[in-house]
Amino acid sequence: MASPSPKSARFFVALLPPQPVQDAVTAIKQEIEQRFSSRAALKSPPHITLQPPFNWSLERLDELQHHLHRFAHQQQPIPIVLEGFSAFPPRVIYIDVHQTAALMAVQPALIAHLETHCGLREGYRTGSDHRLAPWPFTPHVTVGFRDLAPAAFHQAWAEFEHRPFSAEFEVPTLTLLRHDGQVWQIFSELPLSASKA
């Protein structure tokens, strides 16, 4: 993958847990780094990805922020339930996220909003009928991936498959993260501010 030019940067949009949950998840990421030599998951704060990474012109940042703010203003805070671990073999271990109605509705709505207003297509794939369709959404919080070797994955998964983990919380903001060349950093947080009916 080519590096973005200095006139653009990599971004993604996510939901971040509250700090105590982030701390607990980061401790798990650090354990996986120390015991299974996988540090890639430490390059971002614990999160649930809603809009996958995309390149964006720095000259158009205000436009992106505007459309994200408009979207967030129409959404209510999102209840999240984390429970147990799951995997995308042979390289990814994650904390499972319950597929609540609110979460499963906000992700495709965001993808569609950013495609319509910003022209982003990173949340879509071309189907067998050659039409664009959203990527399937499996909400998760990654704790080990990419640089987790297959043998280490199997060893780690044998331990994490039945390890308990649970947390419940409400996410009050949509978070835009930017890659600084080394790690993902929080760039902005947009309040989910629609009033409850």
Characterize the structure shown.
This protein is of the alpha+beta class and 197 residues long. The chain has a single domain (9-191), classed as Cyclic Phosphodiesterase, Chain: A, CATH 3.90.1140. The chain is built from four helices and ten strands. The protein has helices at residues 19-36, 61-73, 101-118, 150-160, and strands at 8-15, 48-57, 78-88, 92-97, 124-126, 132-134, 140-144, 166-171, 173-179, 184-191. The strands form three sheets. The protein has a four-stranded antiparallel sheet with strand order 2-1-9-10, with helices on one face. Strands 7-4-3-8 form a four-stranded antiparallel sheet, with helices on one face. Strand 9 (173-179) and strand 10 (184-191) form a beta hairpin. The protein is globular, with a radius of gyration of 17 Å. The N and C termini lie far apart (45 Å). The relative contact order is 0.25.
Write the layout of secondary structure elements.
Layout: E1 8-15, H1 19-36, E2 48-57, H2 61-73, E3 78-88, E4 92-97, H3 101-118, E5 124-126, E6 132-134, E7 140-144, H4 150-160, E8 166-171, E9 173-179, E10 184-191
Helix pairs in contact: 2-3
How many strands appear in the DSSP assignment?
A: 10
Question: What is the CATH-assigned architecture?
Answer: Alpha-Beta Complex
Low-confidence stretches: none
What string, H for helix and E for strand, traces the elements in order? EHEHEEHEEEHEEE
Helix content: 25-40%
Please name the CATH topology: Cyclic Phosphodiesterase, Chain: A
Shape category: globular
Tally of separate domains: 1
**Given the helix and strand composition, which structural class is it?**
alpha+beta
Mean pLDDT across the residues is: 93
Cα-atom Rg, whole angstroms? 17 Å
CATH class assignment: Alpha Beta
- Corresponding CATH superfamily: Cyclic phosphodiesterase
